[in-house]
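User: Show me sequence and structure for the first protein, then do the same for the second.

Assistant: Starting with the first protein.
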Amino acid sequence: MDAPAHAPDPDAEAEAERLRRARRGDGAAFEALYHDHARAVHALAFRLTGNAAEAEDIVQETFLRMFGFLSGLRENTPLRPWLKRVAANLAIDRLRRQQRPGTEMALAALADPASASPADAADADALLRRLPPLARTVVWLHEMEGWSHEDLGRRFGRTASWSKSLMSRSLARLRQDLAPHGDAPHDA
């Protein structure tokens, strides 16, 4: 029999208590929050940047921001979605800083499929790494993190149409990479 919908979630209660303790300056509580969420934040940051060192920097900056914003976090609101949103925004900021004038089309263009082995085609992470950072970020945030095209367009200083177009080109390229060599992708 399922638990009633109003039953408290022990994990959520434990996290809320750690947040209360961290707000009061309890270093062990902050450390526990870090250990609870750092791996998920790092995984997202790595997927978006494709660079382990940058991902680690983003994790550190995310938790520094959390530490500075502890009093502003609402009670009984899950922490992980907030942390992942901060990490995604930090990754986007890095991408925007790395863009040089005149490279817009190069960033939107998709990577050369000849650079990956056929074995990598089966690995979703390896397949996503074939995309340039901007395309990879938009695909991941939309498909896996649930960001809307409006959110993505706004965050990148663009339109929802820009996000949809980049997403469409990226997914078409990934489908092409998954098709048997020489076969054109087709719908059944």
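Switching to the second protein now.
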Amino acid sequence: MLLMLVAASAAGSQQWQGGWAETRERMHVSAVLLGVPLALAAGCWQGGRERRRGTAELLATAVRGRTAAFLASALPVALWPAAGYAVATALTWLATWYCATGDRPHLGTPLADAAVLVSAALAGHVVGRLVAWRLAAPLLAVAGYVVLGVLGYGDAGWAGGLSPYTETPSDSVPVWWQP
């Protein structure tokens, strides 16, 4: 996640490095369009790995409840993409800090994007446990990318408001719950 987001940001640094709003929008677009499919695939792969290893019988004998057992296996996979996103965001903020004019960094959008990445990894983990197919992870990533792209760029109607990817004008700050 870290390498992908840093590479995506560095590719067009002349477009976003001059202002905080442009930096926020660039990281938001990268996190949703590139990070969510990657988090979905990572979660799905880890969930499928647990199913392939046959840990269901082992977990059935454990003292923990189902939710605790699920979270013990799914949270590490869900938190690593958020950590990579946090480091990539910090690096882009450092790259913007010395040449930004006017505005300030907004913390709400990166926090909400990190929550979206964690949710995507958890959803992918559930799909990985339920679908017994090795190609589920890459196909889930492609499906996530297509769905987010259609909702973000096309005329999605009522479903467009549910998408974590909605472009905002560079002179306004999105509401805290938008991502």
